[in-house]
Design goal:
The protein is of the alpha+beta class. The chain has one domain. The longest helix has 11 residues. The two termini are 16 Å apart. A seven-stranded antiparallel sheet has the order 6-5-4-3-8-9-10. 21% of the residues lie in helices and 42% in strands.
Length: 199
């Protein structure tokens, strides 16, 4: 019954177009780095937009919170990484950019394959978490319409075909344990509010 409820909640939230396949949070010398695999399905409208020169902005959001019995949960860390997916008609190539890094591809499928594989993203600095605390980590990927031109946002925000987002995946994170539980997708109150009570 619980599994059915989660399935319905994910469907209502429109999370079928981006799905989180796996997540790992590993200790490194500088702190903790995150790796994840996504499944992204662009609809025809979004593919046409890219091919006509519209830049799509994909944001990967990471959060880490700690429960407090006397107050609201404390947000320890918030991180975002933005990818720009674009098409250049002159070279007939697709470009995927993040930060100062750019890479070109001969097909949209090739660019999306790279976008779906996030590796070695340092999300926690050394000393940011305590070994005797239990945290909740969260991850999602979504099409960030706020990064687009203002004149384009109005029509895109009101069009369901531009609503592209994964569900939040949340899992318990214990820094002092070598083998932490596997992440699992759960409904999140923020997306419920955004989708009018869906999740």
């Amino acid at each position: 019954m619980c599994g059915l409820w989660l399935l319905i909640a994910a469907h209502w939230a429109g999370a079928a177009e981006i799905r989180i396949q796996s997540v790992t949070l590993n200790a490194v010398e500088e702190g903790y780095s995150l790796s994840a695999d996504f499944d992204i399905d662009l609809n025809r409208r979004l593919e046409e937009a890219v091919n006509k020169g519209v830049v799509l902005f994909f944001a990967v959001d990471f959060e880490l919170t700690r429960s407090r019995w006397f107050w609201f949960d404390k947000k320890v860390v918030q991180r975002s990484r933005v990818y720009q997916l674009s098409y250049h008609a002159l070279t007939r190539q697709y470009r995927l950019s993040t930060g100062g890094l750019h890479q070109s591809y001969d097909s949209l499928e090739a660019a999306l394959r790279v976008l779906t594989r996030l590796r070695g993203w340092q999300v926690l600095e050394k000393g940011a978490v305590n070994n005797d605390q239990i945290y909740v980590a969260g991850l999602r990927m979504h099409l960030d319409l706020s990064q687009m031109a203002k004149t384009f946002q109005v029509s895109a925000i009101s069009n369901r075909e531009w609503n592209l987002s994964s569900a939040w995946m949340e899992w318990k994170f214990e820094p002092d344990e070598e083998n932490s539980p596997e992440p699992k997708a759960v409904p999140d109150a923020r997306s419920v509010a955004e989708s009018g009570g869906s999740r």
